[in-house]
Amino acid sequence: MKRAQVWMWWMILVFCGLAGTAHGAHIVGGNITLNPKTGSPGFYTVCVVLYYDANSTDPNAEQSELTVSFFRKRDNARQQDLRLKLVSKEPLAFTNPGCAQSRNLEINVVKFAADIRLSPSQFADAEGYYLSWERCCRSGDVSNLKGAGTSSLVLYTEFPPLSQVNHSPEFRPANGEILCTNTPYTFESGATDADGDRLSYRLETPFNSTRPPFGIDPLAPPTTGPYLRSEWADGFQTSTPVPGSPSFRLDPQSGQISFTPTQTGLFVYRVVVEEFRNGQKIGEVHRDYQLLVIDCSDENPPPVSLTEALYPPGTSIVPGDTIEVGICSGDTISLKAEEDSRWFYQWQRNGVNLDDGVGPAIQITQEGVYSVVKTFADRCGNASVLGEKFRVTYRSLVPLAITPGPKASICEGSPLDLAVNANAPDWTFQWKKDGVLLTNATQNQLSAIQEPGSYSVHGFHVVSGCVSADTVAVSQNPRPPANLTASKLEFCEGDSSMLLINSGSNLTYVWYRDDFPLPTALSASQVVSLPGLYSVLVTDTATGCTRQSDSLTLLVRPVPQITLDSIPVLCGQGFAQIDLIGTPAGGVFEGKGITGSLFDAFVAGIGSHEITYRYTSPNGCTGTAAQMAQVVAAPRAIVGNDRVILAGDSVQLRSSVTPDAIYEWTPGEGLSNTTIAQPTASPAQSTTYTLRVTTANGCFSESQIRIEVLPLVKIPNGFTPNGDGANDTWILENSEAYPACEVSVFNRWGNRVFSSNGYQTPWNGQFGQEDLPAATYYYVIKLHPDLPVRSGSITIFR
């Protein structure tokens, strides 16, 4: 009977870095995981484990880097890319290596890894995120996919928002297997979850990329999802990716695959493990598989027979289809099959090929279910399996462990107790220090040790006969220094003292006042203002050792009570001064405009000024009091320039207006009102008026204006310059009051015939020593700059 061999290669991606070619026919399968990095909050490890065809002719099969990408599920938005590095490469153990060697089949397990800091605020979307990586192309020999030679391998993992602590499910390691047609097989393709989440399994159509299959940068990040599904070849579908009878079946609870292959070929399928927490799905990991089915012969190696089975003393053995073997932790079981160069032996633990389990003999020290597969050493054929499996378990015995341990430290002068996690009478104990037995140290606790050294306990379990031991290395650390100093032990109320203690990068501090801890005082220095008894507890965080400082007593002297009398509002005038009064007497006044105890508002200037009084008491403490001195500006008293009026006329006196001020004009003669800002003046003679403007705070200003009163000038309209001694000149009555007046006379044609600055000599009717003819002439007289010009006609009669 001919049989088909199924060759199963698994590829696991665990976020690591891998760079190389854009062609992936050398890749058998894989998956991605994302896990928090232990001991590094905020950091995550992305790991990738790939299964490679070690004999691929692809020149780019050996990659050292690759690029994976983070995407948001809700809108497939790219979050960031990550470059991963190659971290290891080891050969995959085949269950039937003789068959693999005869067909020149060799698989390498290639792992990649990289750490990355991820921000929870960036990855906070409730719908979650996914990681992906893609590589073209699959093997063209794949039987169950259309266009496999140009389709990509897309690896995919979903994870929840980073506010949830979560580890990706980890698929169990793969075996290199050879299976025959019409022979039933079972594969363990389940996973484990570090968070204890419930896992469920389903089959999925392999993903494909939208990227063109050739000419791709091998380090290019993957394309954005959602990803295409590969197209099944005729006769294949997601639930039946490999022909079989019984048909291909995936257990949704355990992830176990069982079927009997009935057709040769190279087949691809994908298993998805989903994780659920509190009934809600939070993530999933996809893993691709590739199965090769070929014809094989009907040869069968002889059944496996053990020639040697050596058990340690006290081993418990329960016969059955699976032999139950109980040993002590640390014991070794030796099993050996017949030695013959015609056969090849592969030992398995929990269904997984052991890298060090090649050959007829094995040394077993760990718990697990062990079996051995016997195959031909030089060709393909059926396999022979050991009739019984060995289930090795440790006897119900907790290994001894010393607390604290495995390292501990004692502080200088402080004892330490060591204890083990077991009690008499089930156990007997013996303690040693540096390999030397300690006298009377036979209990489960070693009390009050004060010396450094290597302490060990050796225990014998009375019931099982197992022995256990543990060791702790005890070191001794000095206590930190704690020298407390103060900048001053006595100070005045309101002042402070600087307290200092030894500082160091590993030191922490607890400050005490009057034996009560100060919760906010955590540094090596403190500024204190209260009296009391101060001390500090210093802890070395590197060793845990502490020391309490000596105490310092701080005293606070009282500050004298000082008062300074209030200062009234003052005008900024030269005579505005006030004597200041402060108590107790004998202090010093300070501030702008101060001379001794006198405040001069004029010197201080307009504005608000702080005036302080400082007094030092006999105990050396100084107190101060302060008042504000308000200096205000005097009101405006602006009356303008002096004015000139004619006798009998009046003029309004205009001045600046200050709201709510009091106005007083002196003298009052000739004024319409002496208490308003702008009265009307009608003086009979020239008068100088004084305006005083006073505000409610007593400030005042004065200004003066002179009103000059001039007599009226009488201008006759004709005269008779005929030499008869009567009315021979043009007489301007009162012109003597206008010594700077300007007089001009013009004829009918506008020619000036007379002009005079001042009018001391009246006009005689001549022009150029010649008499002007009798006629009417015209005059222009400017009596004063502040008076209107007079003009009119004058007639000469002859």
TrEMBL record:
Signal peptide limits: none
InterPro entries registered for this protein in UniProt: Ig-like_fold (IPR013783), PKD_dom_sf (IPR035986), T9SS_type_B (IPR026341)
User: What's one Pfam family here?
Assistant: CHU_C
Q: Which NCBIfam families match?
A: Bac_Flav_CTERM
What is the protein name stated in its UniProt record?
Gliding motility-associated C-terminal domain-containing protein
Organism of origin: Arundinibacter roseus
